[in-house]
Amino acid sequence: MTVEEFNYDLPEELIAQTPLKKRDESRLMVLDKKTGEIEHKHFRDIISYLEPGDTLVLNDTKVLPARLYGEKEETKALIEVLLLKNIEGDTWECLVKPARRIKEGTVVVFGNGKLKAKCVFVGDEGIRHFTFSYQGIFLEILEELGTMPLPPYIHEQLEDQSRYQTVYAKEVGSAAAPTAGLHFTKELLQEIEDKGVNIAYITLHVGLGTFRPVSVDTVEEHTMHSEYYQMTKEVAEVLTETRRQGKRIISVGTTSTRTLETIMSLYHEFRECSGWTNIFIYPGYEFKAIDCLITNFHLPKSTLVMLVSALAGREHILHAYQVAVEEKYRFFSFGDAMFIK
Prior knowledge:
Layout: E1 27-31, E2 38-42, E3 55-59, E4 61-63, E5 67-72, E6 78-88, E7 91-97, E8 107-110, E9 115-122, E10 127-134, H1 138-145, E11 171-174, H2 186-194, E12 198-204, E13 227-231, H3 233-244, E14 249-252, H4 254-267, E15 273-277, E16 292-296, H5 303-312, H6 314-326, E17 337-340
Parallel strand pairs: 1-17, 3-12, 3-14, 4-11, 14-16
Antiparallel strand pairs: 1-2, 5-6, 5-8, 6-7, 7-10, 8-9, 9-10, 12-13, 13-15, 16-17
Helix pairs in contact: 5-6
């Protein structure tokens, strides 16, 4: 398969630059994965598609204010550092701009010396490993000095930083938000629970892959970056019981999907576990864990378009995206949602 097969035309003005005032007022396209039929709803209508005994699986990762602006200690040259994942202790994998200025041993200073980072490893494509030094608690210093690492296609400033977090974000460690979950309010989640739907939380820390375009021509040649995931014993039991009862597992977002499919692929059951996954889901993949998916509209030629195409069929997805463009849906992180049922 060629990457070009997952391309579509998107007018730039449909890329949402800011979140809506109310999370659950975004639009919702409902796509039947068997027939390709489409319905147009609003996100709060999702509740009418959920049944008692179904389990909704959400990713409770929390985005780090991971973008830091500092200067080289020696030359005062401006440097941008994006924390991607924690390697060990105070050493982090980071994406750096301009990367050519950062060699092994280079020190970058942030917040007039409140935080310092020494480069301990030089990787490809702007990747560097830094060991940070500071007084106090690292996450508190990040909250003070860092900003939310919004995707490169968002050019507006985010006035309320919490709008790039889900209302249930808990486990700190992501370089980007699991954006399908941004549509939920606490009230809507309560209504869903009151209806008899199980709500289960797993964790996948969104990493480098989110920022990387597919650079090969053939889909099968692409390699995904690894991301850390974990599932508790309680959640594994809820999912196992959902299956036993013949009810549906509805994944919120591609990150939840990749976690659930990784666990099922490795163990052939839901169980308490944690680890690193680089699972790449594209057409031809047979789903083992999920029945339905709530997701946003994804970038042309991205691994995420490939994932939803694996679930609903490439033709159905590309037709749905064409309809979304015609109907002026909002696209990407702050955009509208799709429910693949």
